[in-house]
Amino acid sequence: MAAAPEPGEPGKGKPFKLLGILDVENIPCARDSILYGSLGSVVAGLGHFLLTSRIRRSCDIGVGGFIVVTLGCWFHCRYNYAKLRIQERLAREGIKNKILYESTHLDPARKQTNGGGSSN
C-alpha cells in the first residue's frame, strides 16, 4: 500500500484550483492571502452588520473587505518573498566566489603585504 503524502509535500492527486485558475497549493502566498481575505471578509461584514443592521450593505462591505485584505496580504507576502529570493541569490553568489577565489591572490579576505619585511 502506498503511504499518504505529507501535508507540506505536493500530492500526486489533482491540485486544488480556486476559480479554476489559481493553484492555491503550488503558488507561494496564495493560500495565506485567501485565508486572511476570507477572515477579513467575515470580520468586516459582520462588524458592519452589528453596527448598522443593513444586510445588503454589510454583504457589500464583506466583499470589499475580502478584496482589500486579500490583495494587501498578497502584495506584502510577494514583496517579502522577492526580498528573500534576492538575499538567497546574493548568498549563493558569495559562497560560489568564496570557493572559487579561496587561497588565490584574488581572495579578498587574504591580507596583502607590500614587502612588509623588517627594515634593519
Structural class of the secondary elements? mainly alpha
Main β-sheet, in a few words?
2 strands, antiparallel
N/C terminus separation? 82 Å
The tally of beta strands, per DSSP, is 2
Order of helices and strands: EEHH
Q: How many helices?
A: 2
Shape: elongated
- Strand percentage lies at under 5%
For the residues shown, what is the average pLDDT?
80
Low-pLDDT segments, ≥5 res: none
Subcellular location: Mitochondrion inner membrane
Pfam family, one: Cox20
InterPro entries: Cox20
Keywords: Membrane, Mitochondrion, Mitochondrion inner membrane, Transmembrane, Transmembrane helix
Describe the structure.
- With 120 residues, this protein is mainly α.
- 58% of the residues lie in helices and 3% in strands.
- It contains 2 helices and 2 strands; from the N terminus they run E-E-H-H.
- It has helices at residues 30-52, 55-101; strands spanning 17-18, 22-23.
- A two-stranded antiparallel sheet has the order 1-2.
- It is elongated, with a radius of gyration of 27 Å.
- The N and C termini lie far apart (82 Å).
- The mean pLDDT is 80.
- Belongs to the COX20 family.
Summary tags:
120 residues, mainly alpha, two-stranded antiparallel sheet, 2 helices, elongated, mitochondrion inner membrane, Cytochrome c oxidase assembly protein COX20, mitochondrial, Cox20, transmembrane helix
